[in-house]
Amino acid sequence: MDMAKEMNVAAPLVEKQVKKFGIMDKLGYMFGDLGNDFFFGFISSYLMVFYTDALGISAGFVGLIFVIARVWDAFADVMVGRFVDSRPATKNGKFKPWILRFAPMLVIAGALVFTKIPGMSNQFYLIYGTATYIIWGTLYSTVNIPYGSMASVISGNSVDRASLSTFRTIGATISGVFTGILAPMLIFVNNKVDSGRFFIVAVGFAILAMACYVLCYKMTTERIIVKETVAGQKGDFAKTLKAVAKNRPLIANLVNSLVTIFAMIIGGTLNVYLFKDYFHSASSLSIIGFMGMLNIVLVAPFMAPLIRKFGKKEVAAAGVLVSAIIYFILFLLPITNVYIYLGFVLIATIASGFASFTAWAIITDTIDYHEYLTGKREDGTLYSITSFTRKIGQAVAGGAGGMALVWVGYVAGAPQQTAEVAQNIKNMATLTPAIANLLAFLIIGFWYPLSKKKVDQLAIELATKREEKAKAE
């Protein structure tokens, strides 16, 4: 691949003379996703059961709500990304100021999602649940798109970006302590949902999330400044989309994002019912949350040396393949002991962690490849297109989660589900991630083209072109 011949004029970038990239940037970026995932994780895992068991909304209607909201969110992501790209950089950066501008409204909306007003009709709860969820999702776009776009301007170094991806995943994993371990202990009483406790936990998460957003803003530094903005002339976005269609790494990653987010949402949704109705141990959800924390100790320290030696693509592909094998085993084995099941899940979680820690760094590589193809730097737009795809995956998975409960015969509000329903939940909760991880392996291993060698070559070509452009100016 002769990148120098195909490269257009490099984007007008300049690197600010500020303090060097370091641990403060990594921790600050970690706090950003920690703030995001207080509600993203809480909603992904427990909103379904809050709607069905606290508000009394049927699983089918819940699935419809999720589809409508997530499809809207997907378009909101692109609008926000394009808007941010069209705004000039401020003295504090191009992306991170938007985090503080919208974070207060976002956390308030998150608390309202888990608010049950006593004595209202079923129709009211249906309308209220739909409205608050859509409002929260829209505000989430206004914070998450600038946050995600920020990684590519904090540093231009591939290893630095891999570190940001690792610390972002660490932030998401730490949130699992609260959403995966602490939350189940608080929101369930005698294995049943308590709406009052849901609200208290949501308010606590709102306060913690706001503190994290402030720390993200204070601790990170945007070093790479794009002098030009996307002006928004007619046809500009169409040109961007044409370039996206030629960006094989981006297309492959978009498809992989669809598969990955589908598995994550379905798994988070069905796990609640799996442990509640199949294993009759809702408290075991806390152990699942703790397993995510183990990745920080067992996986994160090895990511940088593994990526340096093998590359992001190679490490991620190996991780999802092992995870797929484990879930296929869980589907086939008639396991009824919750602790044996958790032992298998621990292995799968560790394996998939190698892919999770590379996910966000891979996105920055696809943005660099877009610059290689077009000569333009459109971080917000490209990140929002990736997020758009993930939201479509969330919409499909959210709807499928509700439909899946209908398909297996789940009865909302029933004192106990039948043995047949419980077995169907177990089958779906294991087969879905097995197939999804196998597809992810095929996509990353055979479709996504940016191997370690090609990423290194891309970085050299971009650096050369940027240097030549700076000298010419």
What does this entry look like structurally?
The protein is mostly helical and 473 residues long. It has 18 helices and four strands. The strands form two sheets. The chain has a two-stranded antiparallel ribbon with strand order 1-4. A hairpin with a 2-residue loop joins β2 and β3. α2 packs parallel to α7. The two termini are 28 Å apart. Keywords: Cell membrane, Membrane, Sugar transport, Symport, Transmembrane, Transmembrane helix, Transport.
Reconstruct the topology from this structure:
Elements: H1 3-6, E1 13-15, H2 23-54, H3 59-86, H4 96-113, H5 122-149, H6 151-154, H7 158-187, E2 188-189, E3 192-193, H8 195-219, E4 224-226, H9 236-246, H10 248-278, H11 285-298, H12 300-309, H13 312-332, H14 338-356, H15 359-374, H16 379-407, H17 419-447, H18 452-472
Helix pairs in contact: 2-5, 2-7, 2-8, 2-10, 3-5, 3-16, 4-5, 4-8, 5-16, 7-8, 7-11, 7-12, 7-15, 10-16, 10-17, 11-14, 13-14, 13-17, 15-16, 15-18
In short:
With 473 residues, this protein is mainly alpha-helical. The chain is 78% helix and 2% strand. It has a two-stranded antiparallel ribbon.
Which keywords apply here?
Growth Hormone, Chain: A; two-stranded antiparallel sheet; mainly alpha; two-stranded antiparallel ribbon; cell membrane; Na/Gal_symport; 473 residues; transmembrane helix; MFS_trans_sf; globular
Rg (CA only): 22 Å
Say which CATH homologous superfamily is assigned.
MFS general substrate transporter like domains
User: What series of H and E elements makes up the topology?
Assistant: HEHHHHHHEEHEHHHHHHHHHH
> In whole angstroms, how far apart are the ends?
28 Å
Q: In CATH, what is the class?
A: Mainly Alpha
Q: Beta-strand percentage?
A: under 5%
| Number of DSSP-assigned strands | 4
The biggest sheet, with number of strands, parallel, antiparallel or mixed sense and barrel status, is: 2 strands, antiparallel
Give me the CATH fold name. Answer: Growth Hormone, Chain: A
- Indicate the CATH architecture: Up-down Bundle
Organism: Trichococcus palustris
GO biological process, one term: sodium ion transport
GO molecular function: symporter activity
Transmembrane segments: 27-49, 55-78, 98-119, 125-147, 167-189, 195-217, 250-275, 281-303, 315-333, 339-363, 392-410, 430-450
